[in-house]
Amino acid sequence: MNLRLHIWRQSGPQDTGMLKTYDVANVSEHMSFLEMLDVLNEDLIAKGELPVAFDHDCREGICGTCGMVINGRPHGPLARTTACQLHMRTFKDGDEIYIEPWRARAFPVVRDLVVDRGSFDRIIQKGGFVSVNTGNAQDGNTLPIPKLDADRAMDAAACIGCGACVAACPNASAMLFTAAKIGHLGSVPQGQAERSTRAMNMVLQMDAEGFGACTNHYECEAACPKGISADFIAQMNKDFVSSAFGGRD
Amino acid sequence: MDLKNHIPSGPIDQKWDKHRADLKLVNPANKRKFSVIVVGTGLAGSSAAATLAELGYNVQAFTYHDSARRAHSIAAQGGINAAKNYQNDGDSVWRLFYDTVKGGDFRAREANVHRLAEVSVNIIDQCVAQGVPFAREYGGYLSNRSFGGAQVSRTFYARGQTGQQLLLGAYQALMRQVGLGKVKLHNKQEMMDLIVVDGRARGIVTRNMVTGKVESHMADAVILATGGYGNVFYLSTNAMACNVTATYRAHKRGAFFANPCYTQIHPTCIPQSGDYQSKLTLMSESLRNDGRIWVPKNKGDKRAPDQIPESERDYYLERKYPSFGNLSPRDIASRAAKEACDDGRGVGPGGLGVYLDFSDAIKRLGEKVIADRYGNLFEMYERITGENPYHVPMRIYPAVHYTMGGLWVDYNLMSNVPGLFVLGEANFSDHGANRLGASALMQGLADGYFVIPYTIGGYFAQGGFSPVSQDSPVVQATVREAEEKIQKLLSINGKRSPTSFHRELGKIMWDKCGMARNEKGLTEALKRIPELREEFWQDVVIPGSGAELNQSLELGLRVADFLEFAELMCYDALHRNESCGGHFREEYQTEDGEAKRNDEEFAYVGAWEYTGVGSKPTLHKEQLEFENVQLATRSYK
Ligand SMILES: Cc1cc2nc3c(=O)[nH]c(=O)nc-3n(C[C@H](O)[C@H](O)[C@H](O)COP(=O)(O)OP(=O)(O)OC[C@H]3O[C@@H](n4cnc5c(N)ncnc54)[C@H](O)[C@@H]3O)c2cc1C
Ligand code: SF4
Ligand code: FES
Q: Residues 166..185 of A with a Cβ closer than 8 Å to B: which?
């Protein structure tokens, strides 16, 4: 198939950036979306032009490195699918595709489609862990955890830190990402000791990074490639409120 | 040079305890005076950096990723082994040790493997304490599954995302130390070279991938935890950015590279669908429990699979290995698929694929049972190929998956360059010629959480670390070399992209140094690789400048190293006149095609010393002593 791409080009954080149009021919339906961009880039390099910068690594939907807004939707049109797992059979000959970076104050553009998501790491640094030094641990089976709790923890822990939730949110809020970590650790006994300080510190950092507030649009949940449930946001709010009042419920 | 492995004396199950007792300690107040650079934040690097910081060392960590959470370790699916014996099925440290030595086709060091098996149990405890959501039974206790090469259930897992959850555990431990100011983390910084001062590793040169700045970082010791080199084949199941640069540059600065020819090929991956293919995706080996593997009996049979009658199908694994059948070990299954395709009987685009057919299993068990067992895998397959495996047989083909070779290290995980330690997939130490499933995650975390924190103290306690200034001539010269290399690459302005060279190199390696190797092919590769390298330095084109985010430049630098490293692999494969584990030399097989090991002549680690670009490296041998396990032939029939 032949496609017309409109891709955001921006040489650096200071540049204002703009959409540029490229035609790509003979795209196979078996290509992944990123492989289609590879083909475009090889073409550009052959012509001595700068290839489009985009982030990616595993190309299996697990590392969370890739991320771009495709036709207005983070990671593109398929539900629960990262950009690297999107295949060209989702598109048809003659389609025009708009490709843009995540847009959020807390994710400044580095170049073209590459953004800086360091703010996510800084949120985790404020409490997204259990404070246990290596060597402290007792035998793993001395702490039975009901299967349903373990499953719920895993549902939340599946977050890949891609940032699609932020890109999808009209307020560029990082609630779903932050709630996923709080939800993971809050669902298991190991996470209880630090439960209220964790929520407090992570939420404050989220605000300090310039992420917006949550006004219950749930666009995040719809865009999340790992299907993280917005229910975790409710749990986070509860933890946050109870810590603000000085203790756990 | 005499390679001293520093294996402690005494009975195998007491070596590690004895060694820990003998190691000198650094007193707590002095720890912060010692600085450590950790390159890599995968399982091995993150666990090491976090633990060393907890102990009080002054740690700097580096990764080329935009976050420490994205390392290739994240992609591991299946699980992690540990000799917990929670299932009461006869597992023990000894059995895990034995299985690993045997699985490695008797080319691993006994003492290291035993230590790995010992600390495996602590890893699970540590990860549980961190909140890693391992799978649980209804009673709340940890669940296990079985994996290839073992007769017990000792694999712990977190759905199909074990690597992700273990890495996040280590990443969170690391983030905690970063938040406490105990680790300085440098994201998006690629190590370009190792700085050796007075014979000791004292720092690294990095390129800031956002600003392009090349700079030096100094420390009292350097740890490389930079992963494997599978991407020398271009197509592999590794993440796109995995590369050999860090270990290869250290090799060029004097570190020996051990057993580079040992590479693991996984039999069940989704085949290549076209020239544009950028990587290969693994499908869990468990599929072979219910799928039947076949190709058409006749060459070039282009009919759809359901049009080919039973009598014209060749279920070649069932035919050749009647007792193991479709569950033959990884290396056997991989080679048999290649043979069928080389014979012109492969299926799918380019004839590089074989069928993995579930129709019998669906008839026998019903679609629902199959969906329960493999639903998520079938979905993933369909997403990638657009074909529904409930109705059409899957197509699979072997792919490069893991590299057992790596920098040579002694029992302390220190290379022959004092002060340079190597952890995880980047070292060679524990898997011999073949790694068992679920053992790489175990090794990475063993090295990082439980080995290096002890052994590095022993090194520091020796003392003698005078400060090295960034202005000293050695440091400046190393930085300048890196800058000049970048400038040279940018100035060639030829016609071919780095990817086109990488792809061509990958094809040479796959054809000549892949699943099966022979003297003729390896000799050809050794002729062709230097030519390709020459072409690269004449004709590569890298648009843009060095002073900005430039992904073509990053790739160009990595491919330049692969183009040198590939030769080293071929030299190793050519010299090893035997077949063992992941190294199959066609000349050395039994009449029925089994690998023929030669313990008389080759029961050693081949550690290569760099002698210059394009010049044959020098081989050093570390003899392997088997005092606890009897050398035996692996049999699959
Ligand atoms: C698809 C797949 C599935 C797997 N499944 C399993 C499994 O189920 N069980 C199992 O035990 N094993 C499995 N493995 C193997 C296992 O995942 C790896 O061997 C292991 O995770 C490697 O960990 P590591 O810490 O050594 O390196 P990596 O995780 O590869 O980390 C390397 C780190 O080094 C950094 N780095 C590298 N070079 C540089 C440089 N020059 N400068 C700066 N930073 C650098 C990277 O940024 C990264 O942080 C699987 C592998 C694959 C490909
Ligand atoms: S919550 Fe979902 S969308 Fe947000 S970072 Fe995690 S995986 Fe990505
Ligand atoms: S590249 Fe890893 S999730 Fe897309």
A: 184-185
Looking at the structure, tell me whether residues B365 and B481 fall in a common domain.
no
**In the A/B pair of chains, how many CB contacts fall below 8 A?**
209
Residue of A nearest to B161 (CA): A158
Instruction: Name every residue whose Cβ is closer than 8 Å to that of residue A137 and which is 6 or more positions away in sequence.
Output: B122, B125, B126, B128, B129
B392 and B289 in one domain? yes
Mutation target vs A (from B80, B85, B177, B279; most A CBs, 10 A cutoff): B279
pLDDT 10s digits, B93-104: 999 999 999 989
Contact state of B66 with A59 under an 8 Å Cβ cutoff: no
The rounded distance, in Å, linking the Cα atoms of B579 and B270 is 27
Give A171→chain B minimum CA distance, Å: 24
- Asked if the model's pLDDT at residue B330 lies above 90, the reply is no
Burial class (CB in 10 A: 0-12, 13-18, 19+), B594: middle
Q: What CATH number does the domain containing B322 carry?
A: 3.90.700.10
Q: Tell me, what's the pLDDT at B375?
A: 82
**Statement to judge: residues B502 and B585 lie in one domain:** yes
8 A C-beta contact, residue B553 and residue B485: no
Is B386 found in the same domain as B298?
Answer: yes
- C-beta A172 within 6 A of ligand 2: no
Q: Are residues B295 and B390 in the same domain?
A: yes
Picking from B36-50, B104-118, B133-147, B538-552, which range would have the lowest pLDDT averaged per residue?
B133-147
Structure tokens, B599: 């313990």
Inter-chain CB proximity B176 and A154 less than 8 Å: no
Q: Which amino acid is at A148?
A: L
- The residue ranges of DSSP E strands in B349-393, in sequence order, are 354-357
Tell me if chain B has a CB within 8 Å of the CB of A76: no
Q: Which pLDDT band, with edges at 50, 70 and 90, does B635 fall under? A: low
Same domain flag for B287 and B375:
yes
Closest by CA position to B164, among listed B121, B134, B186: B134
| pLDDT category of residue A223 using cuts at 50, 70 and 90 | very high
Indicate whether this complex's ipTM tops 0.90: yes
B454 is a domain residue: no
Q: What domains appear along chain A, each with residue ranges and CATH number?
A: 3-100 (3.10.20.30), 118-132+142-246 (1.10.1060.10)
Q: Count the domains in chain B.
A: 2
Q: Nearest 5°: CA angle at A238, between A233 and A240?
A: 90
Q: Check if A183 has its Cβ closer than 6 Å to any atom of ligand 3.
A: no
Scanning A34-63 for CB atoms below 8 A from B yields: 34-36, 38-39, 42, 44-46, 48-51, 53, 55-60, 62-63
Residue B112 lies in a domain: no
Residue B125 Cα, gap to closest chain A Cα (Å) = 4
- Which ligand is nearest the CA of B74, by number? 1
Q: Domain for residue B245, yes or no?
A: no
State how far residue A195 is from chain B, nearest Cα, in angstroms.
Answer: 13
Domain limits at B385? 265-400
Task: Check residue A248 and give its pLDDT.
Answer: 47
Q: Identify whether B66 is part of a domain.
A: no
Which of B400, B432, B451 is a domain's end point? B400
